[in-house]
Design brief:
about 50% strand; Neuraminidase; about 5% helix; 30 strands
Length: about 350
């Protein structure tokens, strides 16, 4: 308990200190193991906003609980929506969190939890097989994810107000066919949404949605498919798309630019397989400074976390940490906040926070 109090004090000072912001300049990071909830051997950190981190502490897919971590309180369970397990994916700077949970009726549904309120299952689209997940939440508490439709196909959705019982808005898909899936993964404070949808070529395509444009295909890196994972307030969108060599590669596109153009971010010299796709790299998070995080494969074909910046390109985060313990491998970076602090998890299942020291 004393060790946790000391760690929390150190992290509170680090997270609160404006002098520790990392942007384009070279930056050394300090590694912090965020621990795990009592009774669980492992943890993964999936997102960060301000000083709040969310993720899951787990032993297996059905033996897991979503958590929220903050410097002052450490890691706390988010509980469930009445069932046995939950998992958190998104958080805002207010401390509101979203993800999915088993309910008391045995359904697996998207949830919303305010900073001080109880976890509640979100309303879902009419379906004979209710099933939904929430992946991101903005400052206005607008939430995106997916919900099964009447044909039990995934549909990208936005919940405009989680404190009302209104069902989510179905954002549709690129083809207009209700049997084709779509999913929303990211949302910014202007309610611009990114994700993926089956396209006219029958493959998943990265998509952008707004009230004014509807759903748009963002294209790929020369291949057939891809997905968009995150969007920041300045319009930077990141994800992974097929390149001309047949590999999934991390990408960046600024949808606010006069002529948006997708660019590949390259890799770290190796290849692997992720979600059945041959992959060199995969981007998961971006902030307003266009600092991008995700994972790539190194020359040994080992999955490692990366940081990409305009100044330095793609770098293996394991080489940027001053105090990384022997044997610890940062395998995946999942989120980055406005200060450049990064969260993710290690190869042996430990949730981490990296705090920049320029």
């Amino acid at each position: 308990m004393k060790r946790r109090a000391i760690l929390a004090a150190m992290l509170f000072a680090a997270v609160a200190a404006p002098l520790c912001m990392c942007h384009e300049a070279a930056c050394d990071y300090t590694y912090y193991d965020l621990g795990a909830l009592d009774g669980f051997p492992s943890a993964e950190a999936w997102n960060i906003a301000g000083g709040y981190v969310v993720g899951r502490s787990y032993a297996s897919a059905q033996d897991q609980l979503g958590f929220i971590w903050s410097p002052g309180s450490g890691m706390r369970s988010l509980g469930t929506a009445g069932g046995a397990y939950s998992r958190a994916y998104g958080v805002n700077t207010l401390g509101d969190s979203v993800g999915y949970s088993q309910t008391g009726e045995g359904l697996e549904l998207a949830f919303y939890k305010s900073k001080r309120g109880a976890m509640t299952a979100l309303p879902y689209l009419p379906s004979p097989n209710p099933y939904s997940r929430a992946y991101a939440i903005n400052q206005a508490r607008q939430i995106v994810g997916f919900s099964n439709n009447e044909f039990s196909n995934f549909k990208a959705c936005i919940w405009w107000n989680p404190q009302r019982a209104d069902p989510p808005e179905n954002l549709g898909n690129l083809t207009g066919d209700p049997l084709h899936n779509s999913c929303a993964f990211g949302i910014n404070d202007s309610a611009e949404v990114v994700g993926d949808s089956i396209g006219t070529n029958g493959l998943d395509r990265p998509i952008y949605w707004s009230r004014s444009t509807g759903m748009l295909d963002l294209g790929t890196l020369g291949g057939g498919s891809g997905l968009a994972r995150a969007i920041c307030n300045k319009g930077h969108v990141v994800g992974s798309a097929d390149n001309t060599d047949g590999y999934r590669e991390a990408f960046h596109i600024n949808v606010h630019a006069a002529r948006p153009r997708m660019r590949g971010l390259g890799g770290l010299g190796g290849t692997g397989t992720f979600m059945d796709y041959p992959t060199v790299s995969y981007a998961q998070g971006v902030n307003n400074a266009a600092m991008i995080v995700g994972f790539a494969y190194n020359p040994s074909n080992e999955q490692v976390a990366f940081l990409w910046t305009r100044a330095n390109g793609m770098q293996d985060l394991n080489t940027l940490v001053s105090n990384l313990p022997d044997g610890v491998v940062l395998s995946r970076a999942c989120g980055i906040n406005a200060y450049g602090y990064i969260v993710g998890f290690t190869a042996d299942g430990r949730a981490f926070l990296l705090v920049g020291q320029p």
